[in-house]
Each structure stands twice: as structure tokens, then as C-alpha cells.
Amino acid sequence: MSELLSTFGINWKLLLAQMFNFSVLLLALWWFLYRPVLDMVAKRQSVIEKGVADAKDAEKKLQNAETEATKLVSGASGEAQEVLANARARADEKSSEMIGSAREQADRIVKEAQMHADEAKKQAIKDSEKEIAKAAVLAAEKILREGK
Hints:
This is ATP synthase subunit b. The protein is mainly alpha-helical and about 150 residues long. The chain has one domain (about 1-145). About 95% of the residues lie in helices and about 0% in strands. The chain has two helices and no strands. It has helices at about 1-5, 10-145. The longest helix has about 140 residues, at about 10-145. It is elongated and about 165 Å long.
């Protein structure tokens, strides 16, 4: 057998060493790479299965919630209409009160502004009369001084 291997140019010692090295490499790859990848795939698969189950549960809960919401909405629509009508009536009443109050306040402000304007006008007239009187006195004094 050794002659047959040497005829083909195969060194049996080297072949045996390469087979041993390949076995060690295969064992190391299986131990450090293949097993962790399989574990990771199994974990990922369980996460996906849990996600699918959770999604189904959520869909059922959503359907139940939609049914319950429909019941509540249909029951509450009449009550909502009544509350809305009451709110509109109160809003109209409050609006009328506020408009009346605003008109009264506006009238009061206009009257006060008119009074202040009248007072300012009277004061301006008094001030101008005083100025005119002073100017007249000064003019008279000047005329009298020039006349002497």
C-alpha cells in the first residue's frame, strides 16, 4: 500500500497529519462557530414565534376593544347630543352677557375719553388765554416804552 501511495506521490505521514489538522479545524469550527449560530437561530426563531403569538393576541384584543368602543359610542351619542345642546345654550347666554358687558365698558371708556378730551380742551383754552394775555401785556408794555 505504501508503494501505491508513493507511486501517486502521496506521503502518508503528511496525509495523516493533514487529516488530523482537518479534524481539529472541523471540531474547532463546529464548537466555536456552528453551535453558537444554531443557538442564535433557535433564539431568534423563538422570539419570532413569540412575536407572532403576541400579534395574534393583540389583534384579538383590538377587535374586542373596537366592539366595546362601538357599543360605548352608540350609547354615548345621545348623551353627547344633550350635553352639546346644553353647552351651546350656556355659551349663547355667556356670549350675550359678555357682549352686553363689553358694550357697557366701551360706552364708559368713550364717555371717560370724551370727558378727558373736554378737560384737555378747556385746559388748552385757559393756557392759550393766559399766553395771549401775557403777550398782550408784553406788547402793551413795549408800546408804552417806545412811546415814552
